[in-house]
Write a structure and sequence with these properties.
The protein is of the alpha+beta class. Helix content is 32%, strand content 26%. The strands form two sheets. A six-stranded antiparallel sheet has the order 1-2-12-11-8-9. Strand 8 and strand 9 form a beta hairpin. Helix 1 packs antiparallel against helix 2. The radius of gyration is 18 Å and the shape is globular. GO terms for molecular function: protein serine/threonine phosphatase activity. Pfam families: PP2C_2. This is Serine/threonine-protein phosphatase.
């Protein structure tokens, strides 16, 4: 999808093992906002949770013009999704967990803003260097910070799937926000942990080498599927370029159902 100065490409797959895709995403290019959510809570509950999160954010954001939209509005939309998920769990799931991670990118006034709760990640590729901007809200990440385990030990740790923050699991949700200046040529990646569970940061960086974000997105998905894709995999790539290189724009405009792979959503 295309907006002023930005081109984005989203792709998702249920993976090789899972029967349902409990990830959800939304591209709101008119408001320079992109969101990935990864549901949790068991069969179907996770699917409902992640879709509710992106639907609430989309509805709340599209009620406003871009000139008015601010970080506080987006955080407020996530908090509203948290409230609605709590009500859903109480009404339909006997108070069992129906939660979701959320990671979002918002561009405005020459700045990028990353918002997140959970372990879905946001990366920035700038001048050939890949940086993880978000910090996983997870048990193993806390153990790493405390020096209890190493990064290498964390990969196969029994608590690797335990997250410490999510939408819908507590009365209030805390959303972390990072803001910084954006530059022409910046490429952002938002993804669920199904991608990072299969690919290292170096693998991701290599997949982002092509100039086309479509090619990069396809490469990321192909690599994760080849390695077994034990979880759902979702990613959104967003390229910022004030010179508006038309390579991705023309490619996206020329894509039709016959050329879009089966694992694209």
């Amino acid at each position: 999808m295309i907006s002023k100065f930005c081109t984005s490409y989203a792709i998702t797959h249920r993976g090789v093992v899972r029967q349902l895709n409990e990830d959800a995403h939304v591209e709101i290019n008119s408001h320079n906002l992109w969101v990935v959510a990864d549901g949790m809570g068991g069969h179907e509950a996770g699917e409902v949770a992640s879709q509710l999160v992106v639907d609430v954010i989309r509805t709340k954001v599209q009620e406003l013009e871009l000139d008015v939209l601010s970080i506080s509005h987006i955080v407020g939309a996530i908090e509203e999704a948290n409230r609605q998920l709590s009500e859903y769990s109480a009404s339909y799931l006997d108070n069992k967990t129906a939660g979701s991670t959320v990671t979002a990118l918002f561009l405005k006034d020459g700045n990028y803003h990353i918002l997140w709760a959970g372990d879905s990640r946001a990366y920035l590729l700038r001048d050939g260097e890949l940086q993880q901007i978000s910090r996983d809200h997870s048990q193993v990440n806390d153990l790493i910070d405390e020096g209890v385990i190493s990064v290498e030990e964390a990969k196969n740790h029994p608590l690797s799937n335990v997250i410490t923050r999510a939408v819908g699991v507590m009365e209030n949700v805390k959303v972390d926000v990072i803001k910084d200046k954006i530059r022409t040529g910046d490429i952002f990646l938002l993804c669920s942990d199904g991608l990072t569970g299969e690919l290292s940061d170096n693998d991701i960086c290599m997949s982002l080498e092509p100039n086309s974000i479509i090619d990069s997105g396809m490469a990321l998905m192909h690599s994760s599927l080849v390695r077994g894709a034990r979880d759902n995999v979702t990613c959104i790539l967003i390229k910022y370029d004030e010179t508006k290189d038309n390579q991705d724009i023309n490619a996206i405009n020329n894509m039709d159902e016959a050329t879009i792979p089966l694992f694209t959503k």
